[in-house]
Amino acid sequence: NADAALSRVKSQGRNNYQFYHSAINSQASELLSLENSLHYALEREEFIVYYQPQINISTGEIIKMEALLRWQHPKLGLIYPEKFIPLAEETGLIVTIGEWVLKTACAQNKAWQDTLGLPSLSIAVNLSARQFQQSNLVKLVTQILLETQLNPKYLELEITESIAMHNAEFTKAILNEINNMGVYISIDDFGTGYCSFNYLKKFPIHALKIDKSFVRDLTKNSNDAAIITAIIALAHGLNLAVVGEGVETEEQRNLLRILECELMQGYFFSRPVLAEDATKLLRKSKSRRLSASRLVA
Ligand code: C2E
Ligand code: MG
Ligand code: MG
Ligand code: MG
């Protein structure tokens, strides 16, 4: 009858409510403990920088490595940035973590340049919003470049459109200082944030990285192809380099090449790898270049 049905619904509701509540609680406590261990992760040396190559498609050479952070958690295993960077942002821990990434990546790039004889290899490092708002960012970058002896022109800082557009005057001032040091600046995940063409004109930017969401269905979806075509034309018109991100297949590579996207990054070439594996990739890339030049000579 109706009464029984009603009380069943009510009790279910209560159970659902409890279930829902405990799910939230366990999520909250998971986050809390993650936050807690994030505090110690740096001193416990649990962070690892992975490197993913960027390829100049006309020569096949690796011209740059992008530093991508991972957290080797003692209990939870390898944790990806999407899971802990937002937490690190909220707590402000990203500032010291980001400093460590920058130093590690610059030192690694300098070591590769010197030991592998690759003097013009570059390193790209991602900056988060919070890091960008630090008043000592420019000083910090200067200091790290001095310490690691890396020439500023082989460092590239990647920022997203939302960082760039948030407080545009401030951003412009900082970017100008960074640019004056000789450090390169690229816009990451281009096309997914608010992009204002106005700022592309005003900011000292060197490259656009086409977001991987456009590359994913590039060969199947004519809208994605149209957007990518437009981004590449925009970049070329503004004299910016353009990087296709998230290239996973030969078809994507071929189509991007036809569209005159000269730089590419993605699983098709290599996943992000540990420094020692990146060293092997760089050795191979160099010997390919040497044999290519011998063929020409
Ligand atoms: P991002 O800078 O756009 O980096 C590209 C992401 O795409 C990386 O994810 C990379 O592993 C992934 N990727 C590369 N090639 C492919 C592909 O062919 N297919 C697919 N599906 N994915 C591909 P990851 O390493 O998980 O990093 C995610 C994001 O976390 C980065 O996006 C970046 O915004 C942020 N991040 C990573 N390291 C740092 C860091 O040191 N500091 C800051 N602030 N953010 C970081
Ligand atoms: Mg990036
Ligand atoms: Mg990206
Ligand atoms: Mg991203």
Automatic annotation (TrEMBL):
Domain (EAL): residue spans on this chain: 31-286
Protein's UniProt name: EAL domain-containing protein
Superkingdom as given in the UniProt entry: Bacteria
